[in-house]
Design brief:
Number of strands: 4
Strand content: 15-25%
Helix content: 10-25%
Radius of gyration: 19 Å
Mean pLDDT: 85
Structural class: alpha+beta
Oligomer: single chain
Distance between the termini: 28 Å
Length: about 100
C-alpha cells in the first residue's frame, strides 16, 4: 500500500483544498497524522500525486500491511449508530455502548 506524505511534517495527505484554484500554483493539501488516503498501486498514487498538485514538499511512501485489531459489530439492526444518535440515546437514559 502507498500514501502521500509531507516530507517536513511527516503528516499524510487525506484531502486537497481546491477552493483557491490558481493556474500554475500548487493546491493546499489537507494533512493529518491520523487520517490518510491509501492506494494499492504505485501508479495510482503517482497519478493522484500529480492531480492534487503536490509539490516538492511531498513524497510517495510504502506502508506496512494494515492489520485488523478487532471487528465492531453493528450497533443497530443492519447499521452503525451515528454519534448524534448515540448522544440522543444517552440523554434519554438509554443504553451506553462501550467502544
Amino acid at each position: 500500500m502507498y500514501a502521500i506524505q509531507n516530507i517536513k511534517t511527516g503528516k499524510f495527505v487525506y484531502g486537497t483544498d481546491y477552493r483557491y484554484r490558481r493556474p500554475g500554483k500548487k493546491h493546499n493539501q489537507r494533512t493529518s497524522k491520523n487520517k490518510m488516503l491509501t492506494y494499492d498501486d504505485y501508479y495510482e498514487a503517482a497519478q493522484d500525486f500529480r492531480s492534487r498538485g503536490c509539490g516538492k514538499d511531498y513524497r510517495i511512501v510504502v506502508l506496512k500491511t494494515v492489520e485488523v485489531k478487532r471487528v465492531i459489530n453493528f450497533d443497530m439492526p443492519d447499521r452503525y449508530m451515528t454519534y448524534w444518535e448515540y448522544v440522543e440515546l444517552n440523554k434519554s437514559g438509554g443504553l451506553i455502548i462501550e467502544r
